[in-house]
């Protein structure tokens, strides 16, 4: 059995930084983990990737092609579809080692996860290669500390969960960058009461009066599904990182298939 975290989320949510720190955590625990870069537009990351999609196709290849003439968004979609068409290349690069633990650092185009099928198809490919896959969806906590933005972010996370149909952990990243007052506000969003958060959105503007019923319906949808919970991540807190990794490992049952190590001991010598 092999294990994978599909690290997804909007651009700038800290996916590559997350992969780097999780890799360091595994090294500190004397465990093996690797990272695969699946972002064809990546310019810099701190880890050394096991596989780099840019060796197969780069975003510039799609954008500079005279026939394709893609923009950045269309180019990213094309690159991911090209990867799936060349899945044999990815399979060869990954190798066939059992007990692999791989973090897939994905692009930051949210449409790839929320309603398109390309990432869902990639998940099915990984599962066929004997991977247990957990989606790790990152949202920047700096933009999630008021009711309106939080409802929007929660709807995005819910859309991704419904589209990918895999075990899922939602993470509020960059908590270490929040000030004290913002961290206090964040506490009420960790396990959100969507109907209660509507009070933050309510106001007397014409916009709110016109769309009040829609806002309430969105809040009811989030509450009724009751699937979205966020885990706050402070990269300066090693215990916090360890708890998150433990939660993800429980989801994918990492380590449960390992053989029990039995050591033989010589019987104690009798005292003369």
Q: Give Rg in angstroms.
A: 22 Å
Largest sheet descriptor: 7 strands, parallel
> What count of structural domains?
2
- The total of beta strands comes to 7
Reading the helices and strands in chain order gives EHEEHHHEHHEHEHHHEH
Low-confidence stretches: 259-263
Between the first and last Cα atoms, what is the distance in angstroms?
A: 51 Å
Biggest sheet strand line-up: 3-2-4-1-5-6-7
- Please give the oligomerization state of what you see: single chain
Question: What key attributes describe this structure?
Answer:
46% helix; 272 residues; 2 domains; alpha/beta; Rossmann fold; 7 strands; 7-stranded parallel sheet; globular
Structure description:
The protein is globular. With 272 residues, the protein is an alpha/beta fold. Helix 3 (72-85) packs parallel to helix 6 (118-128) and helix 7 (147-164) packs across helix 9 (194-201). It starts with a strand and ends in a 20-residue tail after the last helix. The longest helix is centred in the last third of the chain and has 20 residues, at 206-225. Residues 259-263 have low confidence and may be disordered. The protein has 2 domains: 2-192 and 228-252, P-loop containing nucleotide triphosphate hydrolases (Rossmann fold); 193-227, no CATH class. Helix 7 (147-164) links the parallel strand 5 and strand 6. The protein has helices at 15-28, 59-63, 72-85, 87-94, 111-114, 118-128, 147-164, 180-186, 194-201, 206-225, 238-252, and strands at residues 2-8, 34-37, 51-52, 101-105, 131-140, 168-173, 230-232.
């Amino acid at each position: 059995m092999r294990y994978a975290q599909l690290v997804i989320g909007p651009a700038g949510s800290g996916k590559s930084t997350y992969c780097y720190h999780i890799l360091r955590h595994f090294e500190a625990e004397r465990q093996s983990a690797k990272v695969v870069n699946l972002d064809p537009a990546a310019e810099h990351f701190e880890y050394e990737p096991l596989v780099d999609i840019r060796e197969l196709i780069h975003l510039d290849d799609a954008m500079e092609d005279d026939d394709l003439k893609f923009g950045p968004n269309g180019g990213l979609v094309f690159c991911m579809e090209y990867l799936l068409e060349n899945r044999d290349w990815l399979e060869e690069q990954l190798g066939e080692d059992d007990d692999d633990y791989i973090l897939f650092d994905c692009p930051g185009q949210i449409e790839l996860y929320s309603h398109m099928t390309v990432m869902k198809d990639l998940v099915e490919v990984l599962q066929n290669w004997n991977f247990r896959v957990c989606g790790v969806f990152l949202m920047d906590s700096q933009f999630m500390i008021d009711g309106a933005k939080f409802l929007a972010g929660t709807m995005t996370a819910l859309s991704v969960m419904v589209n990918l149909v895999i075990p899922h952990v939602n993470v509020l990243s960059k908590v270490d960058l929040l000030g004290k007052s913002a961290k206090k506000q964040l506490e009420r969003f960790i396990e959100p009461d969507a109907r209660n958060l509507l009070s933050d959105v309510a106001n007397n503007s014409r916009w709110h009066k016109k769309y009040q019923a829609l806002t309430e319906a969105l809040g009811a949808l989030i509450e009724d599904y009751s699937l979205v919970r966020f885990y706050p991540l402070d990269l300066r807190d090693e215990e916090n990182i360890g708890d998150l990794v433990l939660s993800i490992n429980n989801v994918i049952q990492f380590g449960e298939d390992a053989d029990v190590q039995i050591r033989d001991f010589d019987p104690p010598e009798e005292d003369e």
